Amino acid sequence: MKIRAHTEAPSNYRNLEHMSVAEILFAMNAEDHKVAQAVALVLEPIREFVEQLIPKVKNGGRLFYIGAGTSGRLGIIDASECPPTFGVSPDIVIGLMAGGDLAIRKAVEFAEDSETNAWKDLTKYFIGKEDCVVGIAASGTTPYVVYGLEACQNHEITTACICSNPDSPVTKFANYPIVVELGPEFLTGSTRLKSGSAQKMILNMISTSLMIGLGRVKDHKMVDMQLSNQKLLVRGTAMIQEALQISENEAQELLQKHGSVRAVLDREK
Which pTM was predicted? Predict the structure, then answer.
């Protein structure tokens, strides 16, 4: 597939090897400031996707992320954070990447070039029309993602994409194309930088707004979070203290009795 201009455009900076550390950091920070502004311009397609996603998941559907390299890893990160943060099953939001779990830590050569593996990976989960798939690819040309979304559309599965190049191949197979234009990377072609940051922000928005829509947040609190370490136990105790206006010891006793913040608030308030 032809490489698109935006993500491969030459950096606005030259002779990076001659820059001081301070100059490098200042320049990178200046580029990073552009990310949130660019994401602000694509809130509408994000909204459209999430608003149709929520009822699908309420009715038993799932959200899949597919990607390669940094894009795939970011999808896996977002998916893996949903169970501990919101107390949902790990089967609700699922991240898949070219090369499988091995590729999370080490690049798997040419894995992203497969035109068939994404669909094979998805069918292992018995994917169906009730599910939604988000393809993540900064360039918008990654075969694993492009052909994965094409296969999904052929099976009448709702698709979205997150990319940084308008009119790239992946947008043709996305019911909800989210195209965040960021300009050249500080390091030419290194889409793990601004493009990766934008992807992370958008994934945060998708999963968080989905979980709020599913009722997994009360007020502004993660009442369904898994209490899997001391920090989270302290946080959960503080939530109960604030909500019920009781002492720390009383909150701890209630948390131990009921097992979760939500259970305490539902039964004691």
Answer: 0.94
Catalytic choice (23, 31, 109, 112): 112
Same domain, 162 and 57: yes
Catalytic residue among 81, 181, 250, 253: 81
109 is known as an active-site residue: no
Is residue 268 very low, low, confident or very high in pLDDT (cuts 50, 70, 90)? confident
Kindly state the DSSP code that residue 131 receives in the 8-state scheme: -
Give the count of domains, the chain.
2
Helix (H, G, I), strand (E, B) or coil at 159: strand
Kindly state the tokens that stand for 166: 């308008």
Helix and strand counts by DSSP (H, E) for the chain: 11, 5
How many CB atoms are located within 10 Å of the residue 169 CB?
A: 23
Q: Are strands 176-179 and 158-163 parallel, antiparallel or unpaired?
A: parallel
Strand 93-97 versus strand 63-67 pairing type: parallel
End-to-end CA distance of the chain: 59
Residue 4 has pLDDT above 70, yes or no: no
- What pLDDT does 109 receive? 83
Active site residue 112: yes
User: By residue range, what is the domain housing residue 39?
Assistant: 5-213
